[in-house]
Amino acid sequence: MIRPIIAGLAAALLLVGCATVADTVAHSAHDYPEARSYVVSDNAMADVDAALALAAESEKRVLLVMGANWCHDSRALAGWLETERFAALVEAEYELVFVNIGTPQSEGDGHNLHIARRFGLDDLPGTPNLLVVTAAAELVNADTATTWRNAASREEDAIYDELVTLADAPVPHATASDEAI
């Protein structure tokens, strides 16, 4: 009588253990590294200004990553930037600064959004956002800066190639028709 009870308990424990392991694997398995780089700064604009000053001295561009630690895409992008491959590229081409922006798509929960407006982006529809800015505070990638909400599902090589391209991309200048508006 005791044997069937023990066998039943063992089987139940085994099933619970397997379900817990499977659940953990399902939630943690992904193809990207993660980092929580979006600290809340007392003065995020000063952090950006410092990066711009360093970029002017080093003749680099600023890689301004605006995201939040609650966002898996923000953590994925930050994680890629911490890998050896990306760190070497960033060291050679960029001054990196992370800015925590909370939840910009929720009414009243976004912060530091004035930094994006400084560079001509009126709206940040989600997280993360990746702005490449010259030392003269010119936004290089206005057309793609807010398109990084799928960073966790992007391929490593695609992210890397885009950062390589943006390091030397020409600054788009306003046309006469843009200035008239």
Write a structural description.
The chain has seven helices and three strands, in the order H-H-E-H-H-E-H-E-H-H. It has 181 residues and is mostly helical.
Gist?
The protein is mainly α and 181 residues long. The chain is built from seven helices and three strands; from the N terminus they run ααβααβαβαα.
Features:
7 helices; disordered C terminus; 181 residues; 3-stranded mixed β-sheet; globular; mainly alpha
Topology:
Elements: H1 2-28, H2 44-58, E1 61-67, H3 72-82, H4 84-93, E2 94-100, H5 113-118, E3 129-133, H6 156-168, H7 176-180
Parallel strand pairs: 1-2
Antiparallel strand pairs: 1-3
Low-confidence stretches: 9-28, 175-181
Count of DSSP-assigned helices: 7
Question: Tally of extended strands?
Answer: 3
Order of strands in the sheet with most strands: 2-1-3
The radius of gyration computed from the alpha-carbon positions, rounded to a whole number of angstroms, is 22 Å
Distance between the termini: 86 Å
Which series of helices and strands comes N to C? Answer: HHEHHEHEHH
- Structural class given helices, strands, pairing? mainly alpha
Strand composition percent:
5-15%
Main beta-sheet annotation:
3 strands, mixed
Task: Provide mean pLDDT, rounded.
Answer: 82
Q: Please state the overall shape, judged from the principal axes of the Cα atoms.
A: globular
**Helical coverage, percent range:** 40-55%
